[in-house]
Design goal:
Blueprint: E1 3-11, E2 13-19, E3 22-27, E4 49-57, E5 69-77, E6 86-94, E7 106-110, H1 131-149, H2 153-159, H3 161-171, H4 175-189, E8 206-210, E9 215-219, E10 227-228, E11 239-240, E12 242-247, E13 250-253
Antiparallel strand pairs: 1-5, 2-3, 2-4, 4-7, 5-6, 8-9, 9-12, 10-11, 12-13
Helix pairs in contact: 2-4, 3-4
């Protein structure tokens, strides 16, 4: 059993990383930093996995300035992390002086992963977006928001049951352990007396097909997650991504 993890660093340069046509890292480059440390197993399939990396200037810049860079590493490690991670993929780009043009989208292939059964979303039907489907997905987003607003960890666990089952398969962990861990995370999240989730502007939600049309990603017009907690005393917020697939005729939260 191997765990796969992204390690991304960037500054003065935006980048988007997708695996199997699903966004896993998206950074505008305005502040720099990247999306290091994301576990990737639930995005990977038991077939060659498609990796794409797209670089773009930070907001307001026509060309990346001197000092702009992006590094993307995909590493693998064992369950106990007792040895040095295995380098699976490495990409690096740095701006020069005089400046050079950005490369076209980078395409690479990651190896298949051994899986006891397929993940639910990989067999989901391809869908078309229309007013009816978007209204149904919006209703699901509202249910998700209402469960967060009520701080109902049990209801959230139920809504995210499919994601938990996929995580159990992808990480080879018992489903009850995944569900208990998820419930604890929500309970810790809700522990603050002033914790609350921000209102959602449902009229301006955007719906984007990914995973070759099998998944719909829901986001705000600026590309941010639609469900966000209000800042805490330290100014920190929590984002709750919304990705759905049509499973057994029902829009269901995945990933």
């Amino acid at each position: 059993m191997k765990y796969y993890q992204s390690e991304v660093h960037n500054a003065k340069l935006g980048l988007d990383v997708k695996i199997n046509d699903i966004p896993v890292v998206s950074d505008s480059g305005d502040t720099g930093g990247g999306g290091g440390g994301r576990l990737l197993n639930t995005f990977l399939l038991n077939e060659p996995n498609r990796l794409t990396i797209t670089l773009h200037p930070a907001k307001g810049a026509a060309v990346p300035p001197a000092g702009a860079f992006a590094i993307v590493n995909i590493n693998a490690f064992g369950r106990e992390r007792t040895s040095k991670p295995e380098a699976v993929y490495h990409f690096e780009w740095r701006q020069t002086n005089p400046p050079k043009s950005l490369p076209p989208t980078i395409h690479a292939v990651l190896p298949p992963v051994v899986r006891s059964e397929p993940l639910s979303w990989q067999n989901a039907p391809k869908v078309a977006l229309n007013a009816q489907s978007e209204a149904a997905i919006s209703t699901l987003v509202k249910r998700y928001h209402d469960a967060l607003a009520a701080k109902d960890a049990g209801q959230l666990n139920e809504m995210l049951g499919n994601s938990s089952r996929d995580a159990s398969v992808a990480l080879e962990r018992p489903l009850p352990d995944i569900e208990a861990s998820q419930k604890r995370e929500y309970q810790e999240e809700f522990a603050g007396p002033s914790w609350h989730v921000k209102p959602v502007d449902y009229a301006h939600l955007q719906y984007h097909l990914c995973a070759d049309g099998r998944i719909v990603s829901v986001m705000n017009p600026d590309g941010s997650a639609p469900l966000v907690s209000a800042p805490d005393a330290n100014g920190s917020t929590s984002e709750f991504n919304v990705r759905v697939a049509l499973l057994h005729g029902q829009w269901t939260l995945v990933l």
